[in-house]
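Subgroup meeting minutes
Present: P.N., E.W., G.H.
Scribe: E.W.

1. P.N. recapped why we're keeping a running log of single-chain structure predictions: easier to compare across weeks, and new members can see raw inputs and outputs side by side.
2. G.H. added today's entry (189 aa).
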Amino acid sequence: MVPLRCIFLLSLAAALAFVPTQSKPAQAANLDSLSDDDLKAVVIRMERTHCYGSCPAYALTIHGDGRVEYVSKENKEAAPPKQATIAPSAVKALVAEFAHAKFLSLPDYLLEKCTCRQCTDLPSAITEIAIRGETHRVKHDYGCGCAPKELFELESAIDKAANSEQWTGDVSARGPFGTTCFQPKGSKN
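Output recorded in log:
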């Protein structure tokens, strides 16, 4: 009888070892508790695509040490890559914005899979963060109305931290034209 009890207890212990436990979400662990070395290794990328109109198209890379790289997608021959530097504290603030947006849990917001309001001819923003050997990327088609406002705010924060306007100029009067919006059949939003 003793050996059966031991086998039962060992089986129970083995089974309990595979039961998931409640833990702190990966989002908080990955973005809220960065060491200085982790922060120096962060790489943030954002690309803005063309629209039907005059939207600026470019790619930004922000490194944890504050280096910023800008590449225009407008006319590659006329606009060589640009570089700048921002304070490491600005990079840390950006990482906090990623945490606030719960970026690591966000899906893509693609027009062809959008179940919310849809608009044609708008640009996209493709945002990515690489941290602690992991990378998460979100493609955000602005024509899909499902994206949370925190994602828009994060994309704006990246532009502001990098001071994108030093290369794009004031784009407040630029943008798409001919946009048409509609609700997909069966959508609730």
